[in-house]
Amino acid sequence: RAPLAGTRRMPHPLSPEVFFDITIGGLRAGRIRMKLHAHTVPKTAENFRCLCTGEKGIGREGKPLHFKGSTFHRVIPGFMCQGGDFTKGNGTGGESIYG
Questions:
Q1: Which residues form a coiled coil (predicted)?
Q2: All domains of the chain, ordered by start, with CATH?
Q3: 62: exposed, middle or buried (Cβ count in 10 Å: 0-12, 13-18, 19+)
């Protein structure tokens, strides 16, 4: 359940769209698209966008600041999934582009 992450340009710069390409067992399962509300939460939106692109390089823990290859550590079918912990992989880690 490893997402590939990236961004796509949107017409309005304060509402960028990002995506996770999801694989399960190495097979493509689909894409999750997310629209970020940078006009409301600019720092949070920019952090999430940069973690999708990986453009900020390596974090303090020595791991890439990127969602690519991270897993969903909790899935409740028909309800939700949690993921994005690219430092520990279990929901207790994570890192921000802001340090």
A1: none
A2: 2-83 (2.40.100.10)
A3: exposed
